[in-house]
Amino acid sequence: MKQLTKQIALLERMDQLVRLKATGRPKQLAERLEVSEATVFRMIETMKELNAPIYYDLARQSYSYSEPTAFKCGFFLKSLDEQAQRNLTGGIGFENIKRLLKF
């Protein structure tokens, strides 16, 4: 599992650098991320497989996105408004559900 979280963190860092158009050449990016150049190329391919509109900009000498893009992987808490809570609970208030679940 540690390997997966490490790879996700690496993709998130690479996404940040791409959005900033601050990756530099592949060799520079590999040094910055402390990975091999081959790993950088594999990551680019993975990003493309995940539909990232990524390309190498020769003028900037940096990877870039052709459209506004961001990569997020993880679980995020979402607040529910009152109507969404009713829909989720079948009309029963969340506080009532908590009381019912306490035996």
UniProtKB/TrEMBL annotation:
<protein>
    <submittedName>
        <fullName>HTH domain-containing protein</fullName>
    </submittedName>
</protein>
<dbReference type="InterPro" id="IPR013196">
    <property type="entry name" value="HTH_11"/>
</dbReference>
<dbReference type="InterPro" id="IPR036388">
    <property type="entry name" value="WH-like_DNA-bd_sf"/>
</dbReference>
<feature type="domain" description="Helix-turn-helix type 11">
    <location>
        <begin position="27"/>
        <end position="55"/>
    </location>
</feature>
<dbReference type="Pfam" id="PF08279">
    <property type="entry name" value="HTH_11"/>
</dbReference>
